[in-house]
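Here we describe the complex-level prediction in full. Unlike the single-chain runs in Section 2.1, the four entities below were treated as one system.
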Amino acid sequence: MSSSSIKPRPHYYTLRFSCPDSTGIVSRVSGFLAEHGGWILHASQHADEDNNRFFMRVEVKADSLPFPCAELRKRFAAIAQELQMDWQISDSAVRKRVVILVSRQEHCLYDLLERWRSRDLDVDIACVISNHESARSLVEWHGIDYHHVPVAADNKAQAYAEIEQLFAQSGGEAFVLARFMQILPPELCRKYLGRIINIHHSFLPSFVGARPYEQAYNHGVKLVGATCHYVTEELDQGPIIEQDVIRIGHGDTVKDLIRYGKDIEKAVLARGLRFHLEDRVLVNGNRTVVLR
Amino acid sequence: MSSSSIKPRPHYYTLRFSCPDSTGIVSRVSGFLAEHGGWILHASQHADEDNNRFFMRVEVKADSLPFPCAELRKRFAAIAQELQMDWQISDSAVRKRVVILVSRQEHCLYDLLERWRSRDLDVDIACVISNHESARSLVEWHGIDYHHVPVAADNKAQAYAEIEQLFAQSGGEAFVLARFMQILPPELCRKYLGRIINIHHSFLPSFVGARPYEQAYNHGVKLVGATCHYVTEELDQGPIIEQDVIRIGHGDTVKDLIRYGKDIEKAVLARGLRFHLEDRVLVNGNRTVVLR
Amino acid sequence: MSSSSIKPRPHYYTLRFSCPDSTGIVSRVSGFLAEHGGWILHASQHADEDNNRFFMRVEVKADSLPFPCAELRKRFAAIAQELQMDWQISDSAVRKRVVILVSRQEHCLYDLLERWRSRDLDVDIACVISNHESARSLVEWHGIDYHHVPVAADNKAQAYAEIEQLFAQSGGEAFVLARFMQILPPELCRKYLGRIINIHHSFLPSFVGARPYEQAYNHGVKLVGATCHYVTEELDQGPIIEQDVIRIGHGDTVKDLIRYGKDIEKAVLARGLRFHLEDRVLVNGNRTVVLR
Amino acid sequence: MSSSSIKPRPHYYTLRFSCPDSTGIVSRVSGFLAEHGGWILHASQHADEDNNRFFMRVEVKADSLPFPCAELRKRFAAIAQELQMDWQISDSAVRKRVVILVSRQEHCLYDLLERWRSRDLDVDIACVISNHESARSLVEWHGIDYHHVPVAADNKAQAYAEIEQLFAQSGGEAFVLARFMQILPPELCRKYLGRIINIHHSFLPSFVGARPYEQAYNHGVKLVGATCHYVTEELDQGPIIEQDVIRIGHGDTVKDLIRYGKDIEKAVLARGLRFHLEDRVLVNGNRTVVLR
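The structure predicted for the assembly as a whole is:
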């Protein structure tokens, strides 16, 4: 191996889109890039034959193009319009900002903080919002703003208005629900569709709702899992980004299941979030296309 | 490693039981065995603290005892009665007999036939019963009896009476439903409780009933699985013996899911059946204890 | 889900190639296809930044092109030459033919025969060759030719000459070593580079050579695995196509490891062979690119 | 489920031992416990037929015995001596103390700190020792002592003397090497045999020594793993406690492998350490018995 496989990745733009399928899409997009000298670092495609929709993601080396990202967007817009694309171009030099929502359980928060601190996850954490005070000191030690927004039965509208305002002020691109044990209001789910990432502590669609590990225990399943998904109005039903499971045994109590589950929750949330940050997740109805 | 780790296992008896938990059970059982010189090859226990029930499985070297299996059963019966055990003693020299039920799909059948032929699975296949003729030649090539029992809406009672008779005549200990695509009548399920082993082609409790791979596809899950369980009256709800999953991707069609699933079905059914044949599975309400 | 996701796949051609990386390759290839109305069903690419090599695989709908496969090959040859491609175009209507080599152990053979018989694996089995007679009747029951070619210390040259002749006569595209317990002569490995698929019963590079399960047992590993790879002159060192592992425990003997391992061997060989048959595996030095 | 399955575990003693195998060991031990009213919460055994050695672990409810732990130890000593046991009795009320050694990489440290803080892992962290200053503030924020002990080519003896002194002063029971990138001196390995737990960033015995992920990349393996083991004098060759793997693809660089690997390292170290803390790991030559 040359030393290049551990060198830092170059500056690049990521184009991703979906559109009605037809002949010549790849040719059109790659032709446009080639015309301007665009060097494709990576590309992947998917055609959904059921609904005749085409999905594509391309990484183009920034300095192979003779113009900046804004100009690329402007020029690509014409093709996008013509092919009726749902599209986006992001710049690897502009780190995405997320707002983390958390309750009392800290395992996912710790995990994200470590990945952020070690630069393992290429993200800015705009702030952490919690309905408890308990994680303040930990978060602030990391130099990240912490906002305590109590959520009670009688102040929900106000609480979520505050959360939304904090999100807007901080320039957040997405919410990460790192075991936030509150149900978001439907209008928030609609407004930020595809931008609220949740970790659910079961292998959905099994064990929707509360106390999934107790449900799993009672069913006598031999594996427990976790699911990272985009939040929609319907509880625990949004498009699944990533899932995984871990083996348990008859000797494990509910407490043991919870403990095993934490490891899976951390890993699955981190993987799902990474896919989101790297512009790999394209929503396809109630399913996702995750382009590697 | 000495060569002993690949030598054949010695002749042994397997005692397994469950009973109300109390002080001194292990002592009582192991004391009884020690008294007669019984050499314990392997033992495992489980105490369910929720329902205060104790589960144990012991392998005793046959020639360490001064009497045959029948006498062991007779002598142990007194302890079993006193401790209110649900118990069983089996003899490794007496191979268990199963009856396989199958429909058109042959992957699980092939898999079991190979394991039987290579002696990898220590079992006698009394016969194969199918509601189709398609597997006859394959089964008969293996020197195993094949019975075609058509199951239609208007002959169910008669068909299952015939199946039960074939089972009785063949000295079967258990039914193995190797992708038998028919729902057994409730009275059969009750009569052979804990002796009908099914493979369901989903990770239960997700996707109960028909076409689980289509259900999985529609939910956009990222893993599909299979479940080996004892059949009860309630469809796909019996105590789970074993489960496993395999990763799928957005590019996989329902046909691909079915294909991936087959590999998991084969492996899970074979593992679950082995646990059953080795007297490792003790039913605990609607859950199982699988003593290794 | 519309019913389309379970409909049979259309007739298509698969183009795959690798070449020195540069700007405009995707554009060139997709432009060529678009020019003739070629409908891309699926495409995937990989750029190896270490050795500056580009890999691509495209599936094109056959009836979207105005000419047959031979003409496609002819026309594409010009581009291929210009871009210094190592390339191939295959036709989904032409089933690949393989020759299976096997010794005494039949688990992988059974598994492949079932996949072949159920059309789960889209392959023709030209014949089965073995250094034992034991599997003849099983293979012949499937209507497949069986050749017994004894391999002994003093007849190796002659035996492999016979095997090669059988392969040539049968129109085989690839050899599948389904637990063939003989070491192939170096000249055979060289001649059929990338066309001899082996399953090795360990997670390579651990436990090269003989008795890997005993080696695994002695090392006290907690997982055992299997490796599907192309055979090269250097024993068990060829490019890895696929691998997997399974968990074992301290209570498992070497015999148990062998038994667990069989399940992994079957699954890994079947997956690796499928990747090969679907033209997904491109060799990249001593590594493989498996384009999904 | 009654609420009991999530109630805290009762106070208990854990007896574990290995000894030459013979008739009556289980009876002798369980008889001794029953004699004093000892309630067995959990028990497991293993007989190694290769070297004729027996392994057992029993959890006994503390308040079912009429005497304290010290007296239990005293009374059991007679049996232990007679049966030539290598044995130990621990008290669930006495939390084990460990000393963590770490270098620059913090992912395992973060993971352990979170498990410690949330009481998910029942352990006292006596202190953290590092050959760098970088983690001081993080550790001290948790209220745990941090010692910077530089280890250089010319001060090794002195550095390890200091480390050993810190360990002794802190009352540590075991060392946890949470990615400590230094090779311990042989005499330290010998002195604390079975009490130094390391996480190695490969699926041993593959990729011993430095830069295992680069080695894995160069071999083109399809899975990478991690190994938790007791440290012995021979580098990366000590008895394996736990292992796991994760799937990688041809598109992953060495940097990606390192990142995937971190998740496995964290999980495997945490599981291995838990087994150690719960007195489940019994060394058997160069292998381990992990009694569940």
